[in-house]
Amino acid sequence: MQQTFSKYGIISPDAYFKIGHLQVLEEGGGWGIRFEVKAYFSLATKNNGSAPIETYYYTMNYDTTGAGNSYYNLVKCAYTHLKTQSEFSTAVDA
Questions:
Q1: Can you name the residues that pair with 30 across neighbouring β-strands?
Q2: Amino acid 52: pLDDT
Q3: What is the per-residue pLDDT for 11?
Q4: DSSP annotation string for 51-67
Q5: Total number of domains in the chain
Q6: Residue 55 domain-assigned?
Q7: Mean pLDDT across the stretch 27-51?
Q8: What average pLDDT is seen over the chain?
Q9: Nearest CA to 62 among 74, 46, 48?
């Protein structure tokens, strides 16, 4: 998706975002996931070994009683959560 990296004064027409470190936390009788999202200028720069331009951090509720087995895949849960955030509303799977 297009991403403005205002800290560096650049705009990427095809920024690439990758879920990084995930941590499951017990919170108030339930569960949560804290995870990082690494932002790259593009998939090509990520594949060439370039460092991420920025790293973002998110926390979400983690429902272990969900239907089906999708809730077992923490990475999938994190990407699904990202797509509910306004800043990722135009994101598509690569």
A1: 27
A2: 96
A3: 94
A4: PPSEEEEEEEE--TT-S
A5: 1
A6: yes
A7: 93
A8: 89
A9: 74
Place of tokens 């009683």: 65
State which amino acid sits at residue 37.
Answer: V
In a domain, 48, yes or no: yes
Structure tokens of 21? Answer: 């470190």
Burial of 26 (0-12, 13-18, 19+ CB in 10 A): exposed
Residue 73 lies in a domain: yes
Tokens of 65: 């009683």
Structure confidence at residue 55 (pLDDT): 96
Asked if residue 92 belongs to a domain, the reply is: no
pTM: 0.84
* Domain that includes residue 25, residue range: 3-86
Q: How far apart are CA 15 and CA 91, in angstroms?
A: 9
* Distance separating alpha carbons of residues 41 and 24, to the nearest angstrom: 28
